[in-house]
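ok so for the tutorial part 2 we go from a plain amino acid sequence to predicted structure tokens. step 1 is just haveing the sequence, like this:
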Amino acid sequence: MKTLQQSPALRTAFQEKIIAKKSAVHQEIHQALGDSTLGGLASFVHEFKQAKNQLKGSMGEWGISAIFQCFPDTWMMFNNALIPTNNSGGLTEIDHLIIGTKGIFLLEIKTWKGSFTAYNDKWKRREGSHWVAVTNSPTSQSAYHQQMFAQWIVSVVPNLPNNCVYAPVVFPIAKWLGVNNCSVQVFQGVPALLQAMVSCPECLSEQQIQAIALAVANYEIPQNPTPTPKPIPKPKLVKRHNSSS
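step 2 — the prediction. this is what the tokens look like for a chain of 245 residues:
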């Protein structure tokens, strides 16, 4: 399998959006807690958790990336791929984007430890004898990636077969998973994922693989993206006074 990369300019644009988002979060914290020591501590804790989660995720993704080298050289892979969203100039990140004769796979890697359960994309984790709700649903996130990529890729590479975009979620080190009726497939361990990928029907030609990979590699944010129309505000009700007779 060949590993490809996108342009550094696209990565820079994405990082700028991340920095702006972090700045907005810090501003909300300071507005809620003020510029006191407590506010500064809350911002530090938020940054520490973000960095810790990113490090854990990167280590897990690197190990999985190496495993996929067993696929043929005609297959293509992007690590931390950036794809467009419906938002004006928006981007979303895919842990691993793999393109092969079996289809397009948008892999969401969750290096979570412990036990987890999910029903209708609502996730919970085991903490002692209790189940605690998980704020960000990995299957909802992956389903969103699938929708955004499918809408975009058919606009730049025509005549692709239906249902060729898969968006599985993979838990390489989870102790236990109980998943029912979620939007995308969930796998416990990489071997189960590999078996599922191999079992998919052949649907893409080598020419289509190259065209898709080229579109991902060369993607650039439009210079003058069409602004997202703002919703029309509801008209205000005008109270009418009954005229006295």
